[in-house]
Design a protein that fits this description.
Distance between the termini: 56 Å
Protein name: Homoserine dehydrogenase
InterPro entries: ACT-like_dom_sf, ACT_dom, Asp/hSer_DH_NAD-bd, HDH, HDH_cat, HDH_CS, NAD(P)-bd_dom_sf
Strand content: 25-35%
Radius of gyration: 25 Å
Family: Belongs to the homoserine dehydrogenase family.
Low-confidence stretches: none
CATH superfamily of the largest domain: Dihydrodipicolinate Reductase, domain 2
GO biological process, one term: threonine biosynthetic process
GO molecular function, one term: NADP binding
Mean pLDDT: 95
Bound molecules: NADP nicotinamide-adenine-dinucleotide phosphate
CATH architecture of the largest domain: 2-Layer Sandwich
């Protein structure tokens, strides 16, 4: 039997995820080695502050603050520091030293993916990033390998556990947005500054990664349309449930047929009404799920923990075994592909449905007036519900669901409704997805 030398692993970061990865390698090294066919040796763990308390028992002699030297002496570098710098420079340095890289850093991949993938392909190195989207859930490898022979048509993902936790509490407990956010912060799901989660930046980074992978096209994160959940109200959530929907923050990546016969890619993040019958409606708490529609495979759903140190470490260790096996077997491995190079479709050109809530004066002729606004913009109404409130000055709340329309027409309809003299207020607009 051929004896392989140990595969040297450098770990950058020993925080929530990194400490768990170190712990698993140190405690289950023999089992991992048996799966790989060679020994795995953790040669060092780079941190910022060597005296910080760790959640795993990492021998002090492995801890270093000299990440640069560490990455130049490893076969596989696992980056779990987060942030753009020094993670970017260290990963490029690792690649140029001939190492394969594993990272969970969605921000880095969404902003600098092409630079990193290009550098890797020049030297035949590989980048693994299963943990960068939806924590423990296997979704990168299914898209990159299992579905490589299929044509993905659409991905709908609940990829931010914090916002799902918040929206779920509003829906199931009738809490306000403020109270749910406070609870998310108290439980450690949300940061003290929750902007990245509640404004959809985190989900947009994941949408960029998923869209790029699924459609073999580089989708820059600044071309992902983004709306957060901060404008969603308890009233909207309750009205949605009464109508048979639940509101979820969705990351959507979609293949779009263009008028000139070509295909484009749409990547977008917004809160949307999802029918209660859709599998994504059953994703509660801080869980994540990614619903994939492919031409041959049909619908697939991947569900599980989207974050957490030990859970995310599972995805990192899966990448580690794959990367280490390649060191044993050799060969080029799976590379990133951007061959389709499809145009990115702006939000104005996508097709969706709107659910519009209006406050109107309750007087004869109002409905006809509103109907004419819809028909002027070529938008067809699918449902209309009216509730009259007030006695002396009767006003009505109208909830109007549209058929599928082009976003630009739907948005123009809302603008025209807001400007109409019979409309007192457009009190809510939500897209409907998953029908
Ligand atoms: P974390 O708890 O903040 O840990 C970061 C670690 O990196 C710490 O050990 C820190 O050192 C070290 N570090 C930071 N800057 C450094 C620098 N300049 N030089 C050397 N070491 C440095 O982060 P985390 O939650 O484990 O997240 C790590 C990565 O995984 C991020 O990209 C994150 O987006 C991703 N991720 C996390 C989760 C999750 O549930 N936490 C889920 C999916 C993906 P000190 O300990 O000395 O400060």
């Amino acid at each position: 039997m051929i004896e392989y030398r140990n595969i040297r692993i450098a770990l950058l970061g020993a925080g929530s995820v990194g400490a768990q990865v170190a712990d698993q390698i140190l405690r289950h090294g023999d089992e991992l080695a048996a799966r790989v066919g060679a020994g795995l040796e953790l040669v060092g763990v780079a941190v910022r502050n060597p005296d910080s308390a760790r959640t795993a028992d990492i021998p002090q002699h492995l801890i270093t603050t000299d990440a640069e030297t560490l990455v130049r002496n490893a076969d596989i570098v696992i980056e779990l520091m987060g942030g753009i710098e020094p993670a970017r420079t260290l990963i490029l340095s690792a690649i140029n030293s001939g190492a394969d890289v594993i990272t969970a850093n969605k921000a880095l991949l969404a902003h600098h993916g092409p630079e990193i993938f290009d550098a890797a392909s020049q030297v035949g190195a590989q980048i693994f990033y299963e943990a960068a989207v939806a924590g423990a859930i296997p979704i990168i490898r299914p898209l990159r390998e299992s579905l490589a022979g299929d044509r993905v048509s659409r991905i709908l993902g609940i990829v931010n556990g914090t916002t799902n936790f918040i929206l779920d509490r509003i829906d199931t407990l009738g809490e306000s947005m403020e109270a749910s956010l406070q609870m998310a912060q108290d439980l450690g799901y949300a940061e003290a500054d929750p902007t990245a989660d509640v404004e959809g930046f985190d989900a947009a980074q994941k949408a960029a990664i998923l869209a790029s992978l699924a459609f073999h096209t580089h989708v820059p994160v600044d071309q992902v349309y983004r709306e957060g959940i901060t404008k969603v109200s308890l009233d909207q959530v309750q009205a949605a449930r009464k109508a048979g929907y639940v509101i979820k923050l969705l990351a959507i990546a979609e293949r779009v047929a263009l008028e000139d016969g070509r295909e484009g890619v749409s990547a977008r993040v917004y809160p949307a009404m999802v029918p209660l019958t859709h599998p994504l409606a059953a994703v509660h708490g801080a869980y994540n799920a990614v619903f994939v529609e492919a031409e041959a495979a049909g619908s697939l759903m991947f569900y599980g923990a989207g974050a957490g140190g030990i859970q995310t470490a599972s995805a990192v260790l899966g990448d580690l075994v794959t990367a280490a096996r390649r060191h044993v077997i050799g060969g080029p491995g799976v590379v990133e592909s951007a061959h389709a190079n499809m145009p990115i479709v702006p939000i104005s050109a996508i097709s969706t449905r709107y659910n519009i809530t209006l406050e109107v004066t309750d007087a004869p002729g109002v409905l006809a007036n509103i109907a004419s606004v819809f028909s002027t913009h070529g938008v067809s109404v699918e449902s209309l519900e009216q509730k009259t409130v007030g006695v002396e000055v009767p006003t009505a709340t109208l909830v109007i669901g549209t058929h599928v329309g082009i976003e630009a027409d739907l948005a123009a309809t809302v603008d025209a409704l807001a400007a109409s003299p019979v409309v007192e207020r457009v009190s809510g607009v939500l897209r409907v997805e998953g029908l």
